[in-house]
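Complex record, two chains
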Amino acid sequence: MTGDEKHQPSATSTLDVLWVLYNRVLRIDPTRPDDPSRDRLYLSKGHGPVSYYAVLTAKGFIPPEWLPTIGDFESHLGYHPDRVLVPGVEISSGSLGHGLPLAVGSALGLRAQGNSSRVFVLVGDAELDEGSNHEAIVYAARAGLDRLTAIVIDNDSSTHGWPGGVGRRFDVEGWTTRTVNGRDHDEIEAALTVGRTDAPHAVIARVEPKGSTQ
Amino acid sequence: MTLTEIPTRTMREAFVATASQLVETDARVAVVLADISADAFVGVAYRHPDRVLNVGIREQLMVSAAGGLALAGLRPIVHSYAPFAVSRAYEQLKLDIGHQDVGAVVVSIGASHDSATSGRTHFAPEDVALFDTLPGWQVHVPAHADEVDGLITAAVADGRRHYVRLTENAAPRALLPSSERSRAVVVAVGPTIENVLVATDHLHVEILPVTTVRPFPVEALRRAVTRAESTDVVLVEPYYAGTSAHGVATALSDVRHRLLSLGVGRRDLRRYGTAAEHEAAHGLDAAGLRRSINDFLEATARRRLT
């Protein structure tokens, strides 16, 4: 599987979750992308950002005329997003296993300032192969980061798999977890807006296995 | 040379005092640890549990969390043993601090071979060379504990990216000899100043002590070379030899010059012992420096005769 081939399933696997987040869950205002009280979405799985850019355009962060330039030298939009170049993009991503640890830091930082904004981070089930995620999963639970939500897009693409399901990796450390159909908007919304507890929350969004007909 | 005092506290003690004070007085400051030195922060962590964070033995997370804290508006100070703070978490420094375009202050302890009995796994002669590959980092190598407070306070206030390299083998404060008609300029980075002063006693060289080595002190070196009688430069660094050679080349790009780069050798010695024994093995003790610098200056003299 080459890098180019990876983009198509990556882009479509995240589309429904991203739309529900931006349309129903995140407290954000495209006219104030730096508002300290905004909710944050960290797209850790920076691969295949076409659906991300599409949603940011639909919500008014990105001018539509930027979209056809994707990947060009002069474009603000690359195959992996850059927070310095794109309004509404919270982290520069692409290398796997950085978003969740960054989100842990931001959740700690917001809590230290008495800011109750939520931090969401979108990761892939194959991305969880990176050990850095597991450093973050353990610590987030011990630190009681109740405003942190990890969303795992699970399309069975991890090379060695997660016996018993991805959710167990979070559950055993003390996260609250929900596993949902990653194409069902109401299920996704319900899982992302459960009542507040004292633990971080993980939503496993199951989508079609990578390589299957969509 | 004159040694004016023996430090009464270690660099690590000075760092803990300063970082704790900053946490107490500035609500933006957070300290992120990975078990190393955590005992020393227990008191301030009890008072400020949200801003003194020990993530356990997780150096990748330590650096990434600092990036996340900075994204949320805080001023993180990251601290661990040098190889774990730098080479272990290199990609996190590159992407989660640098590429996110945020600031952080990384403070390491252990230097090239402070813990000599621990062996290669606890040595970090490569740390400054690694930071050299990352844009926007300032690198500070204090010689003695009294410099630590000012360096870290200024770095945190500045809000950009800083690496502060502490050592358990600090140099005593020393007075520089006045140098008239110097035969060469000797750049002494951080704690190398102690052995450099002994090694160059009566050699008639100008000593240029350097604490902030990135950005490289181009103007200071140019001024020193202008004062000297030759354009011979000796660069003495307490990490890999030649790490700052390109800084000298840049500073003197329009001047014919000779450069002798001294520092820790690249070879894995596979030795334990003491830090002093490692210094000697790399020719960084006073006798070794004197030998190397003498040979370098003699070579100049011979070349002039022939």
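Note: The CA atoms of residues 4 and 223 of chain B lie 27 Å apart.
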